[in-house]
Design brief:
This protein is of the alpha+beta class and about 100 residues long. The protein has one domain. It has two helices and five strands, in the order ββααβββ. It has a three-stranded antiparallel β-sheet, with no helix packed on it. A two-stranded antiparallel sheet has the order 4-5. The longest helix is centred in the N-terminal third of the chain and has 6 residues. It binds zinc ion. Zinc ion binds next to helix 2.
């Protein structure tokens, strides 16, 4: 189960909750959330809008959550090597890329 961004309303939904999600993927159609598909939200979890400040979209169109952008630098002297934040470069996604076929090659 993965998260994706609805191409119509921008809501984040779960691929496993959305009727017809994989049919749309197979037909190369943009993904729609449950509400855009059926007219009603599933209420399994609250609706949440995609926010580029807190979410990112990976190379296969899945939505993930950014690591905390604010390093804990308000605690002087607590240079703990175990609190290393994940490399932010890994999560940069300049533009959302939603399940588009790659025409390279
Ligand atoms: Zn939607």
């Amino acid at each position: 189960m993965s998260l994706f961004k609805c191409s119509r309303c921008g809501t984040i939904d779960n691929t496993g909750m959305t009727p017809g999600f994989w049919i749309r993927v197979c037909k190369k159609l943009d993904p729609l959330c449950t509400e855009c598909n059926t007219g009603k939200w599933h209420d399994v979890f609250p609706k949440e809008a995609f926010d580029p400040a807190t979410h990112f979209i990976d190379d296969v169109g899945h939505v993930g959550y950014m690591p905390d952008p604010e390093p804990a630098n308000d605690r002087p002297g607590s240079a703990d090597k175990n609190t290393e934040v994940l490399n932010h470069e890994t999560f940069k996604s300049p533009m959302p890329r939603l399940l588009r076929p790659d025409k390279s090659g």
